[in-house]
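Give me structure tokens for this 470-residue protein.
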Amino acid sequence: MRRIFNLGISVLLLVFVVGCDSENQTYSEPEDLIPNDPAMLLSVSNYNTLRNDLKLNVAFNSYKGRELYDLLTGNHTILEQLSPISRSLIGIYDSGSDSREFTFITRNDSTIFKLDSLPNLVSETLKYGEYSIDRVQIDETTAFTATRDSFFLLSSSQKLLEQMLGRTSASGARFKNSVRLAKDAELLITRNNARIHLSDSMTSSLSEQLALNFTIAADGVTGYGVANGSDSIPGMIDIFKGQLPQANHIDKVHPSVAESSLTFTFSNPDSLFQRLKLFRGDSTIVRVPGMFEAITEISEIRFSEGDAVVMHSIDAVLTSEALMPSFLENTTFRDVEIFEFTKPKQFKLNFSPLVHHTEPELGFRLDDFFVFTENMETAEKFITAFKSNNVLANSTDFQNATRDMSTASSLMILHFNGHVRKGLADVLFAEMEASATSEPLGKYRLSVLQMTHDRDFAHVNFVCKEATQS
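Here you go.
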């Protein structure tokens, strides 16, 4: 018993010593001072350059007034007074209320935060241990600033600033790793517990962490990075573990006029079905229906007049035979036989949440593709587009986007025309608001989010550029 007691005392002393050492430790990188685990961390190589680039970007400027826009452009009563000369980190924290708190970390400099000439400034100095904290109020906006080692620290929350000074709670290594791998990024956005919108009303867990390195230009926004999976809290990218990403063919039949689409590929249907069941928490035993055995790619495509599901088959004869019992002859349009589909819930039942909305009533074949639509109007749209070559493969917007994409992917989400705003908001802001759902975005007609699974993570590409021609 005495040995156990002595061991306990030793552990407590060790924890105390380590804790004291961490508070007195000298830090050399801004990421060493990140308090807690922020919901979102922004790494900016040159804050002044980024502010100028963002103000020239039509797409980003459509989000004026949103919190992230204000923080990145300096359109904030306190941050507009900052002039950092080196890499900066901005952390955004959920505070449990309608508003969120933020922190700003950068190298200290004599000119970084000059307030002497402001007539509406109220300030006071507070003490926190050996450190001095300046409480700054400009008009109705309050922030707290301090310096530690060679860093200037600013926060909307006194508690968060004290954490940076006292290091009472350190950031997880996963944030540090993502930041250190992209120190020169113009804008690196890292999100914990990333979610993605599958529709206006439905979101789904995407990955444990999503880190994207963005390039902001006057004519577009592009990004690349990684999404990390998790065994404890599975995200959508974990559905594709064990799958070999397949080449995308959907552009050969996808009409160039749509609202949005979600496309996924797979090499092993049995594995995909099992992982989808685990993701949904579904314990029922389901065999892969014959109609899916030769399928490598499925897309749910949304139109204003009705939605559709498209499958690409590597053995169209086998798929046709498997579908025959579910097809009842209906009509013909432009020499294409259109059948009544008797299992409208089949896609949602087997592929939710990847296919979560469409319950098609009609089905037909276009070469190696099998198209299922909710109504005749959408069926005619597909057949007309296919016959007239008015499909994505021949779209200049899509052709330009593919230069920044992989030829094979696990998951690809497209937004078109007025709905491009949704795709951009989902990637940049991790949320959408009603005012950002259907308004045109200048010359922006397409956004592409592409994920390619690779072992325990996924490569991610995002492309949203102005159209090169009207």
